[in-house]
Specification:
The chain has about 180 residues and is an alpha+beta fold. The chain contains two helices and nine strands. The protein has a domain of about 120 residues: minor pseudopilin epsh domain (minor pseudopilin epsh fold), CATH 3.55.40. Its main location: membrane.
Length: about 180
Amino acid sequence: MGIERRCLLRYRRAQAGPMKAARRLPDPHSGRRQGFTLMEILTVLAVLAIALMIGAPLGISALRQSQLRDGATQVVTELQRLRSQAQRDSAELKFSLSTSNPNSYTLTKNSVAEVRTLPHNLQLSADSGGSSAIFSAPYAELNPNVSPRVGLVWVVSAPGSSKKLYVKLVGVTGKVVLSATN
């Protein structure tokens, strides 16, 4: 091979740039493995199952507590709305617990009754002071003939649960209070 030819080859190599390393395919016999073994997959599944068994009761308890709070808030909001409406409209409004269905209550204005139902199958029952409250005009006071002046206490509970929330109407004015204790 002549000098000219060698120079030409060097020139072309310099123009092409550095040579890239050739890619190699993995050798199946090199001892390196790809993927996961059955034992590794079963271990991960067992850890996930244990975590779910521990976390599920906590999640269910939090959900039930949230549902109970939603139902009690509904009752409190209705009572506050009735009290405000009795004052605004100078009318007599009544909130009474249902005797036939513990999941519902009745709102009455001008002899027109409207039945409402608690969400999530919650129950509303009287703890003390009676099963109805009448807000009388013009100051939206609790009617002393029907509702005791010392206040009313109603219980919002979920079937099969020991947790309860108490809705209280306090004093002559019927201030509405939500409490976790009686």
